[in-house]
Here is the input.
Amino acid sequence: MTQMIFVNLPVKDLERTKGFFGKLGFSFNPQFSDETTACLVISDTIFAMLITEPRFREFTKKEIADASKTTEAIIALSAESREEVDELADTALASGGSPANEPMDHGFMYGRSFQDPDHHIWEVVWMDPAAVQSQG
Here is the structure.
């Protein structure tokens, strides 16, 4: 069986968050979604479970981090090109996201980041395939 990853993120307004990621071109798996949870499909093996804060509290005894004040995680997504990095970051910013960090450009690696409506930080990164192969 192929290993999968499910990143669980608390959200304040599920419909707003679904609308944001829908504008970025992502889809949702209805099999793992309901009125309190939306399963954001990132790839065939990577998903983000967007869970309303009241429901999220059922999974932890700890306080939920206020992502507008604290960074609890940075979710990084790979991109096929520098242009794809810019396209996704620009769309996120135009769709209700906010800037997170300054763009990173090392020539062989380029990335930009944004915050979703719940202030979770997402990075989109492209790496030159030749540079990756030379590391192996």
